[in-house]
Design brief:
single chain, mainly alpha, 81% helix, elongated, disordered C terminus
Length: 167
C-alpha cells in the first residue's frame, strides 16, 4: 500500500510540474507576442518586399573561397580580416536580396525575420567590430567576431548548422 501511494504521489507531482511548465511557456509566448508582435509584423512586411533568393553554386563557391582567404588572413592581420569579414557578410546579404545598408540595426532587423537564430551572432560581431575601431578589442575579441560572422555567413550561404554538427 505504501509503494502504491508513493507512485501515485510521484505521478501527481510530475503531472503538476508539467502543467506548470506548460502554463508558464504559454503565458510567456502570449506576453512576447503581445509585446513584440506588431514589431515583428512590421519587419516581416518590410522584408516581404525584398527579392530574397538563393545564389547559384558557382557564386556560393566564390563566397566560400573568399571566406577561407579571410580566415587565413586572420593569422597575420586580424583587424583587417574582421573588417573584410563584415564586408563579405554585407556583400552576401546583398547577393541574397537584402538591402544591407550601412545602418546596422536595420540590417539586423531585416535578418531577424528569416534568420532569427543567427541574427544575434551578427549583432555581437558588429559590436566587437565597433569596439575594434575604438581600439578596445584584443585579438581574442576579434577571433570571437570572426566566429560570430561565420555563423551568419554560413546561414546566408545556405549551409545548415544542423548538417555541420552531425557530420
Amino acid at each position: 500500500m505504501n509503494s502504491t501511494f508513493a507512485i501515485i504521489l510521484i505521478v501527481l507531482v510530475v503531472v503538476a510540474a508539467a502543467a506548470l511548465i506548460y502554463y508558464y511557456r504559454r503565458r510567456r509566448s502570449r506576453d512576447l507576442r503581445s509585446r513584440f508582435g506588431p514589431e515583428l509584423a512590421r519587419r516581416a512586411k518590410r522584408v516581404s518586399k525584398f527579392a530574397i533568393r538563393g545564389i547559384p553554386e558557382s557564386e556560393k563557391q566564390r563566397f566560400a573561397d573568399a571566406w577561407q582567404a579571410e580566415q587565413a588572413r586572420f593569422v597575420d592581420q586580424p583587424e583587417q580580416a574582421v573588417t573584410a569579414a563584415h564586408r563579405l557578410v554585407s556583400e552576401l546579404m546583398r547577393a541574397r536580396g537584402y538591402p544591407a545598408s550601412e545602418e546596422f540595426e536595420q540590417n539586423a532587423d531585416d535578418l531577424s525575420v528569416d534568420h532569427p537564430y543567427v541574427v544575434e551572432h551578427y549583432r555581437t560581431a558588429c559590436l566587437i567590430a565597433a569596439r575594434r575601431e575604438n581600439g578596445q578589442a584584443n585579438t581574442e575579441d576579434l577571433r570571437a567576431a570572426m566566429i560570430h560572422y561565420r555563423q551568419l555567413f554560413d546561414e546566408l550561404l545556405g549551409k545548415s548548422i544542423q548538417t555541420e554538427v552531425t557530420q
